[in-house]
Amino acid sequence: MEHTLMNLPFKEDALEPYISAETISYHYGKHHQGYVNKVNALVKGTPFENSTIEEIIEGAEGALFNNASQVYNHDFYFRSLSGDKSEPSQLLQDWIAREFGSMEDFKTRFSDTAASLFGSGWTWLCINNQNRLTIVPYSNAQSPLRDGLYPLLVCDVWEHAYYIDYRNARASYLEKWWNIVNWDFASERLGAYKYVEFPCDEHSGACG
Fold it and tell me: Which of 38, 76, 152, 191 has the largest count of CB atoms under 10 Å?
């Protein structure tokens, strides 16, 4: 199976002034393309030669896993961004309020988690196996798929995602990142989840 680079879901300059066209050109056209190329080179002659990216992530190790996971992570990241303003669906707002108290509290916790991640990596909003929202940081190419999590949103905190525009100021990048979050994508992901009602509260027994 030949893996191909995803179509960028927006024009390279669509995220300005928050992320420049130059950053997108390098991030998407060089880094992301490079991971796709490496997967295609590494997968030849392996048991994963005809596997999907997700299947490779779930079963491979070493360089093949790292590059396949980076392809998936970048696919998800670029879909998590949009130059068009959007808002979370009511369902997603309800889930966020239930888990984190408010949207502002959620953003603070997410940004703090992403800012404090040591080195390169990713910060994800996922649904865990208790049907609860969770903010999960992963280093390098680690994947929520291996932990049975269902991702809704991701922020890339590798330096190549922001260094051209923000240099070493990761916190500034994270602050501006919220202006270009594709809430429609995250909302669609939640809407497609197999369990779209609130789980019962384990302490009070209340549902909804």
Answer: 152
